[in-house]
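Quick question, first post here. What does this chain look like in 3D?
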Amino acid sequence: MIRSLCLTILVFLGLALSCRAVGDQVSPPLRVAVFDRPPYTFKNEDGIWSGVAIELWEQIARQLNIPFSYVDVPLAQISEALQKGDADITPSVALRQDAVGLVDYTTPFLVSSMAAQTTKQSLRLKAAAFWQSLRGSGIFLLMTGMLAALVTFSLVILLLERKKNDGHFSEVPPERHLLHSLWFSALTMMCLEYDVALRLSLVGRLLAYTWSFAGILFLAVFTGAAVSAFSSAESNGQITQLEDLANFRTGVYTGAATERELRNIGVPVRGYNSPEEGLAALARGEITAFADDAIPINYIANNTYPGQFTLSSIPSHSMLYAMASHRDLPCLPAINRSIQEITLAPDWASRVQRWTGPMNP
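> Answer (accepted):
Ran it through. Tokens below.
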């Protein structure tokens, strides 16, 4: 038992000392690849790198006495920089299956999902979308046919009943017979009163009952088509899966996982050099949706464009964030152990939320 405990202590000390040996023997210090991706990694107002991943990395570096320097590397070039040895480690990157074996990942320390920000639709835009859905539903053709049927029934019932002395038209001046017949047809389409039906001839009564039944069917079909058009207009503005972005002019962060996913399924996208640029383009109307990791675009929108956008999360596409290094970095086992100790602590969730803020829809 004592032997096992001693062996465990020696292994842990060896991992820590390997990192310190790196700091003592290797010059220059570890090159930490960073890029602008708030709230993970970004420069604050004083030009100092900050963010939840920076805070985590600097805590680990202090614990393990690892000297380092930050190196600016575009997100799209992070993997290549690590593979070529131009950088030693990056504190925050989404796990990629195609990069496994090319770089080494630590234990994930944060979970997010893909999402899209869209502009909030005004009442005018919603009405325009509803009108467009109505036009495509065939409801206007149905209304035209029903209007023609109403006029035809009015003429037929007028011809049958106008000469009946005690009939429906006996109390109406002849010059108003046609208008009265049209009004009678419109009312009968919704409801045929019993005392009115009794004043019609047998043939007229049968036609009126038939017309009333047809009117009920028409109203049912019309209501269904209108509700379907409204639902279609609403669904066209919703994003629940990546394929829905094909209905938008979509912008993405160049080099991010969302860009690869959308291009793989054939959704056309426009690349931007940062989420800030993409959301600015969304605010200008240059694009109608900006897709990326939910946490950064929600963070930027809350701080720069409060109340202007609607966030649609796509939970089926989760994103795991970890640190990544070039292959066989001596310090990586000790770094990984420190990540586990820090992220399993009770205060880790609150530390993350202090940076990310609430996920507002």
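Residues 202-236 form the longest helix (35 residues).
Residues 1-18, 20-27 have pLDDT under 50 and may be disordered.
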